[in-house]
Amino acid sequence: MIKNIKLYGSFLVASLKRMMEYRVDCLVGMVSQIAFQIIELIFIWVIFQNTDNIAGWSFEHLLLLYGVMMLSVSINDLLFDSTYDIGNRLIKKGKFDTILLRPVHPLISVLGESQTSTALGYMVLSVVLIVTMLIKLQITITIFLIIKILYFGILGGLILGGIQTIFSVAGFWIYKSNEVVWSVFQLHKLAQYPIEIYNKFVRIILTFLLPFAFTAYYPTLDYLGVSESKLIYVTPLVVIFVWMIAIKVWNWALNKYRSTGN
């Protein structure tokens, strides 16, 4: 496992260096993502022009929740963006066969080929939102709180990455697998709002089936000092469980792979 982690780190660093060679492209990607997220924040602001709270959550509470989610999304984008379109980018073009020749599990190689600059935009916005809302809500910012936010932000990113990896296996059968992955991944936006606003069925999905609630909702409850936030401490187990499924599903799909042929 340690060897695989080191290899993954080496692949990721190499990919990031390639990406940073195109600095203008990186900057444009970052700015465009910040602009897109600002539009979503304006939408939330419009909602609060007609109400004081959503399920007891004020405007500041909701922006803190949004910022925590963006932190997890930025980490996911940085570490696992390469699983988004393996069907069209690797399998359809036959490049996946070259990955199979490497003396390392193919998933390590795939995960190490990060190719996005959007993570930087998400990360900048998340940090600004989190710090600003903590100050507005008069929550004391301590070293312990900063470490906790970073820790659960990383765990949230791992959960998002695990879910994305599970559904990325669609690429072995559907070359435009990015549409499948995108459709499932967009459900994380439901967790950008308090899950109390959804019915019981949706809350079960967001907590147990597609545990997006652990990427932002439960951590934010803890930062706000809400007593019902104890589920936050189950997050490491959720990460392990999600990735156990992801690896098993990937190995199963890998055994079904028969190359493209052209």
Task: Compose a concise summary of this entry.
By secondary structure, the chain is mainly α.
Can you walk me through this structure?
The chain has 262 residues and is an all-alpha fold. 68% of the residues lie in helices and 0% in strands. It has helices at 2-20, 23-47, 59-80, 86-91, 95-100, 106-111, 118-136, 143-168, 177-185, 200-209, 217-223, 235-256. α2 (23-47) packs across α7 (118-136), α3 crosses α8 and α8 (143-168) packs antiparallel against α9 (177-185). It is globular, with a radius of gyration of 19 Å. It starts with a helix and ends in a 6-residue tail after the last helix.
As a percent range, the share of helical residues equals: 55-70%
Question: How widely separated are the two ends?
Answer: 35 Å
Number of E strands: 0
Order of helices and strands: HHHHHHHHHHHH
Average pLDDT level: 86
Shape: globular
Helical run tally:
12
- Percentage of β-strand residues: under 5%
**What class, by secondary structure content?**
mainly alpha
**Low-confidence runs:** none
Estimated radius of gyration: 19 Å
Biggest beta sheet summary: none
Question: What is the secondary structure topology, with strand pairs?
Answer:
Elements: H1 2-20, H2 23-47, H3 59-80, H4 86-91, H5 95-100, H6 106-111, H7 118-136, H8 143-168, H9 177-185, H10 200-209, H11 217-223, H12 235-256
Helix pairs in contact: 2-7, 3-7, 3-8, 8-9, 8-12
